[in-house]
Amino acid sequence: MSEPRRILMVEDSADDSEVTARAIRAGGCDLTYDRVDTPETMREALRLGGWDLVIADYSMPRFHGLTALKMLRDSGLDIPFILVSGAVGEDLAVDAMRSGADDYVLKSNMTRLSAAVDRELREYEGRHARKRAESLYRSLVERLPVGLFRSSTAGELLEVNPAMIEMLGFSDANALKQFNNADLWVDPTERDRLLDILRRKGIVKNFAMHLRRTDGTLFWGEQSVHAVYNASGGVEYYEGVLIDINNRKIAEEEANSARDRVRDLALETARVRSEFLASMSHEIRTPLVGIIGTGELLSHSDLNPTQRRQTEMIRSSGDLLLTIVNDILDFSKLAAGRLELERIDFDLVDLMENLVDSFALATSAKGIELCLFVDANVPAGLRGDQSRLRQVLNNLVSNAIKFTERGEVTVNATNLRDSDGGVLVRFEIVDTGMGIPLEVQPRLFQPFVQAEGSTSRRFGGTGLGLVIAAKLIDQMDGEIGFESMPGKGSNFHFTARFEKGAEAIHPWMTATAASCLSTILAIIVNDSPARTRVVGQYLSKWGVENEAVESGADVLEMLKRKSVTDKRIVVLIDQEAPAISAIRLARAIKDGVDGKNHKVIVFSLPSGVTKSIREIDAWISKPTRPSHLFSCLLELCGSSARPANKTFDAVPGVPTTNRPPLWRKSVRVLLVDDNLVNRTVGAQQLSNLGYLNKVADSARHGLEIVADLGTDIVLMDCEMPGMDGYEAVARIRKSEGTARHTVVIALTAHASEEDRARCIDAGMDDYLSKPVRLETLAEMLDRWVRNKLDHVLPAELQTTR
User: Fold this and answer.
1) CA 787 → CA 20, 407, 685, 757, 782, distances in Å?
2) Is the pLDDT of residue 312 over 80?
3) What is the dihedral of CA 361, 363, 369, 372, to 10 degrees?
4) Higher pLDDT pick, 701 / 641
5) Phi then psi for 432, rounded to 5 degrees?
6) Share of the chain above pLDDT 90, in %
7) Same domain, yes or no, for 237 and 284?
8) pLDDT category, 698, cuts 50, 70, 90?
9) Residue 228 carries which DSSP code?
10) Which domain CATH number covers 187?
11) 369 three-state secondary structure
12) Same domain, yes or no, for 627 and 737?
């Protein structure tokens, strides 16, 4: 039985080392390994030796995979080296291989690792076998027709063999001996260097030099020489061998040239692909402005049911096409290793609550429950890339809703590890949907793979969403996984690491929350296990005694049993529970014994809220925000005063009327775009939002309007003939100087981070990628009004700057 392979793991995570070892053992390789994570420990491990293979992580906090590779090669040990990394991209792979790595494996494709290890070990053994054969061959060559010679300490040739004479083009040995051998060297400095080494060390091995034959032809030779010492320790003479390596040199040069051509071709291919995708994105987004923008404008107009359905088809088709374009761009950037995460402060609780709010219409349309549970131990204030986190969550929640015909989708966020260095958060998206076929599960995170062959036809999409999510999670130092049973649902979960950001306070997450609500007894009336479980978890965390029932009769019976209690009773009813009439039950509760002192809260879809029902003390819109539930309980039971039928909206701050605020009429917005469709749609959007607007069909026309009429905000297209948006904004900044500052927002069909950076560097204040929806446009303009133009706002809306 062969000995286990000894592997040196250069890895900062013991867990990742074990994952790597399991991946190798899965391929049938028996192994033992030691783990090092600093240059010092690796240097000591290399000194001790005995390794068959080195596997190194590419990026570690105190070490780097390429540094480990250099240490190995500098040590002189001929050991295979495999780089393992979560990053992707041809440039990284090329750099690793050029630096001497034997292979390069992605953490997202660890199944390839065992094959790579097996191959490199076999090649390593073959390489050593070849070296042993070459050693035997060299000893044999010294007795065969290769150039053999003996020379004096002064460099005069004393003896040569026929092969040497023929190699250098001489007629006989005397002619060669009488010739000044210094003239054989094309570069005399090479001869001086060889003699210097020989004098100092007494031996020179495999010294390559460029030589000239007597007929003037050039060739490459390789010389090995050593000193022969006399009895007194002095050099008596030198002897050596000269080999014609001209063919090898030519082959090496051709190989190097071919490698350079392959590298240049790969770089050029990446450049062309990047330019093509950027161009494709721009060209597709431009007509999408007309499709999505017009569809959205139509949806805000008076339409009959047939027209509204047709308009919704236009919008949904445009949204699907936009999603496909965005997926392809993100996948391309991730594959090229060009996507970098932002590091900004954000509120995780706000992000999670807004996330579930955005899916309220989708879940209500399908009649499924959407529940959110955020662990009170999760720090709300984090630092990281909230946009990419939202993108991952959007993808997973959207998939869960898409593949769930009935039942529930639950979104969980819990704190796994909290330290001074940061926070590791675990997210779970659990659904009761169709599940994933067992045969597809092993390749679910491969590009263009979907749950079944008919999925793309039935649900749409590129099959890139999970791949992009997995790569983004990897960049967040997290891991993604799932469990799924066909016909019973799925649980997708991932971790993400964040720094601690600016503190964000939410009363329901504080230690004092329990003391505020400890006098309450809550009865949960709901037939949804997920909602019952989530609401019960919140209540228990706040110190609220709670029980769950499934029918109105159970509630009334429980109230009779609790007729004598020192706690204030709150009944939480789900209006959508099919076996329960919330309003009838609320009336029965109020008409019962001590019913006037009981509080009734109804969970409802926003469209189901009926404020005129006097028996109902408060409405909470679904999906339920924990902050709304806490505030509602606090308001109802914090004092004896009865609130005036309070409603806690799923989307706070949304106006109850479709009419835009009057102050927007005071804001002058100029839209500069050379595309007629873009100008038409953009102008109508601005009018619908209530902004005073003008349009310009060129940058020069826009500059004239800014100079003559003045404007508060300019929406500037970047790509225009004659003068583009970058030059136009430069002229605006130059003409204004420090006297004033017109807000300029880039409005472009380019959508990459590089495009955004270019716009900001050119002097623009912000960036919008086409197509722009009404809500996004309104949020952007309103924010800049508050930042720069709050003099146009009513006093109660003005901000302190």
Assistant:
1) 51, 44, 22, 21, 9
2) no
3) -70
4) 701
5) -110, 35
6) 16
7) no
8) very high
9) E
10) 3.30.450.20
11) strand
12) no
